[in-house]
């Protein structure tokens, strides 16, 4: 009654599913920003397969890549969140070292059980995260400075704990955290059936998730991929996963660290996509002022971002010390750069607000495959540094170019 | 020499012919014509958003040649500036309202920034630069040392340094955009005196100002712009031009049926603001002083004020003290005092604020519609386990898209690519989803086209019909007159009027909006009836300062904020 106005009537829309282009090529180029990294990954894998005469794809090497670079991927998860919020963390290499040092001191010098050492390592990571979070969020010192200071500070603590000498000789139970395998749980004929089963479950889960998303999107009249594109995607992912599982099954079985990693990835995909905290991270990175004026408690979110980074640096520290079977004063030097590179190569925006966990993981794997391939090729350190530097530069240049072309800024 | 058909007595230095400037979806200038005679002070008048600043940006090359239609003739030559350097080279210098000085650099460094005096070997000759700067400072009437950092000076002196900087560039045409908006009476008087002096030296001036008395006292002629069109040019030098005459030109448009009708049924009072006082975010002055206002359920109130009057500052300060320094004041929600010390508390108490600058403060432009809609009330979508229900989120956004008629293919569309009107609808959706009792809408229709404006008005009507209280801040008086039940006027940080719609006219509002404070010559505290917190506490800060004519602009001594808080 009170509104006599005749508003322009909302256009009545007939609900019908909207599909994107059925042409996979068009779908790819339309979304080059996301798919670019996958294409690059495939190309790099193929390149090294050719250069190494297939050695890089050998079962044992695939298994090694996972165990050797798992710690970088764990760091990259935390780093992605830090970067999306518009910060950076330069200290994770040092944090990883001090975590390993504390764990080694407890497990080796004081002969504590493996779980005491591991939990103490995580606790050290969390405390360090809270320390850095305090300075960034509540004092307002830029993260670059706080973590640059932390890089020196925690390297120093690492030296203190280790008294400047390496410790080695973890108990086997601790080493298993990084280099243990589940093998023969269900038997197998020269391969581990359990690993294959896990692979199959993963593929089934992926298919179910894709179909559920598709159904929901159709229900809400969103654009969905054309069916052939979806099927192609499922076939490709399924083939890659099963091939990967086969390689593991014929090598040493399912690495325990892969289970840890898979659990973390799944958990953090949910955290970044579906929790209030995760969504506020993107809001802060996308437009700090708008987030503040929407009632986001920016300080609290920033604080927890760094606590989380500390926790994951703790996990990475435990895995790294378990993998190297000891703690060295110089452990993890430069690890922060690999983690940062992984996030950026995986499509995170330098300006914040953009990036996905899955992207960072692929970015991390890309770095891992390149590093691993260069080692197989026995490339000198000098060339390894040069190539890693160029890869990072080109990846971010690609991102900047894409952004300018799409004109979102 | 090459000037064509101009009589020698009224030598025209600048002529802008049929300037049309279009932004995506908005025609900012349409066939604007401006003629400025050599040696005069020419004022440009118009409401906020009429197109004054756009016109000046076209003139100074901020919008390069080719991005507008029409022709600029300067000094008899057709000018095609592709950037600000070229227009400065030709002798056109613009001084923006937002001063472009680097606070940490010295006066001399600022004056010669980008125009450094080079000595031997290409190095800067600072001795000469400081000497030249000293001469320029004397010319604009300043006695400061050229090595003093600019940040240590007041706004008035900074303004003069901008002018000194312009003088280094061999300026022929000086454009001042709202030069006195942030100045007190003394500084304004000084600045106007300087303009007269420059005029005597042969420099032509274009001045944009809302202070009509100033315009009449200094300008020889004025061009009035409204809705991106030239309305008329008045000859002030010939006399007979009054403030009322200019106001009529500025606002003279009929209301038509641009506004949907609404029956007003105000209910109980929802929000009352008492004695609200806010300090400037970075400078030591008050931007809002002792403001009182109230709004009832089902009521739309307007806040009218000129640029710099403190409208946005007041609104943002009420919204969880998100602007400047809170120096005092109380909030009452349905009669009970509430605390809204941060944005979260404000939202919890049912207050929402939709910003005037949606790109900067309102939206995450790189994210999609649904996530922007849910941004202020994400907790509402988080079910058990704290996980955001993304299906429900899509449903909510989809509902908003239909209700608000947001024109976007899906709610997954990135907000940065929407038109202004649709972006505004996303901002409104965000706050409507937060389900507030009071919505403060700051310039809700700025920069959006007429059709979308109408839709926004319809949304406002729906909100009040649902029992919400709405506060609209707008620079467009017809808009306030078209949609409000009551209009507060704000002038220089103080509420100068509370006008029921039945008694409101544009002329009356404009008069209240330009009401300046009566100068206090005696230095005695302003104690007329109910002295506000701001004035009573401030009075001791200026004992025996008879020169201090305007207390609201006087710097607060450092201990005062504590007294007030």
From TrEMBL, chain A:
Record's GO cellular component terms: plasma membrane
Keyword tags: Cell inner membrane, Cell membrane, Membrane, Sugar transport, Transmembrane, Transmembrane helix, Transport
Cellular localization per UniProt: Cell membrane
Pfam families, per the entry: BPD_transp_2
Topology in membrane: Multi-pass membrane protein
Residue ranges that the Swiss-Prot or TrEMBL entry lists as coiled coil: none
One MF term in the entry's GO annotations: transmembrane transporter activity
Ranges annotated as spanning the membrane: 37-59, 65-83, 90-108, 114-131, 136-154, 193-211, 223-246, 252-271, 301-323, 329-350
Key word Membrane present: yes
Superkingdom per UniProt: Bacteria
PANTHER family in alphabetical order: ABC TRANSPORTER PERMEASE PROTEIN YPHD-RELATED-RELATED (PTHR32196), XYLOSE TRANSPORT SYSTEM PERMEASE PROTEIN XYLH (PTHR32196:SF32)
Role: Part of the binding-protein-dependent transport system for D-xylose. Probably responsible for the translocation of the substrate across the membrane.
UniProt protein name: Xylose transport system permease protein XylH
Origin species: Quadrisphaera granulorum
Automatic annotation (TrEMBL), chain B:
GO cellular component: plasma membrane
Broad class of the protein's primary localization: membrane
Keyword Repeat found: yes
Biased composition, class Polar residues, residue ranges: 546-565
InterPro entries: AAA+_ATPase, ABC_carbohydrate_import_ATPase, ABC_transporter-like_ATP-bd, ABC_transporter-like_CS, L-arabinose_ABC_transporter, P-loop_NTPase
Chain spans, region Disordered: 526-565
Residues in ABC transporter domain copies: 14-252, 271-517
UniProt cross-references to Gene3D superfamilies, sorted A to Z: P-loop containing nucleotide triphosphate hydrolases
Membrane topology: Peripheral membrane protein
Keywords: ATP-binding, Cell membrane, Membrane, Nucleotide-binding, Repeat, Sugar transport, Translocase, Transport
GO molecular function: ATP binding; ATP hydrolysis activity
Stored Pfam families: ABC_tran
Localization, UniProt: Cell membrane
PANTHER family in the cross-refs: CARBOHYDRATE TRANSPORT ATP-BINDING PROTEIN MG119-RELATED, XYLOSE IMPORT ATP-BINDING PROTEIN XYLG
Name of this chain's protein: Monosaccharide ABC transporter ATP-binding protein (CUT2 family)
Organism field: Quadrisphaera granulorum
